[in-house]
């Protein structure tokens, strides 16, 4: 089937089955590899993108459920309200270790700051709880979110 989607403020037409996960459309069909595959069950958060500004697990979101929604991936993070500040804070605080979870972490953090510009530790914990970091840099992630919100 043919689907028209809005991704990073551009229109794309893709020819895939309706039950194809958005993740595979982004990575395999459109060639944007910043969004990562982690678990395939929406448990780790590596595949997080924004669908109409909401942090969404793209590994379990089918292309036929997208409709007219605007999708934003890590490739367009700097266009989001707090995206550039998050990128700068991430670098300043040396957050990335292995880097695998970083795109999902950043996309979840950007959605948090859009909804809650001055988050508390509890806000951060709640928003980031679905993102797994194998390297254990969570304290740096929390500090980066606070720095970006300052």
UniProtKB/TrEMBL annotation:
Its EC number is 1.3.99.16. Pfam families: Fer2, Fer2_2. GO terms for molecular function: isoquinoline 1-oxidoreductase activity. Signal peptide: none annotated. Residues 1-77 form the 2Fe-2S ferredoxin-type domain. The keyword Iron applies. SUPFAM superfamilies: 2Fe-2S ferredoxin-like, CO dehydrogenase ISP C-domain like. InterPro entries: 2Fe-2S-bd (IPR002888), 2Fe-2S-bd_dom_sf (IPR036884), 2Fe-2S_ferredoxin-like_sf (IPR036010), 2Fe-2S_ferredoxin-type (IPR001041), 2Fe2S_fd_BS (IPR006058), Beta-grasp_dom_sf (IPR012675), Diverse_Oxidoreductases (IPR051452). Keywords: 2Fe-2S, Iron, Iron-sulfur, Metal-binding, Oxidoreductase. This is Isoquinoline 1-oxidoreductase alpha subunit. It comes from Peteryoungia aggregata LMG 23059. The lineage of its organism: Bacteria, Pseudomonadati, Pseudomonadota, Alphaproteobacteria, Hyphomicrobiales.
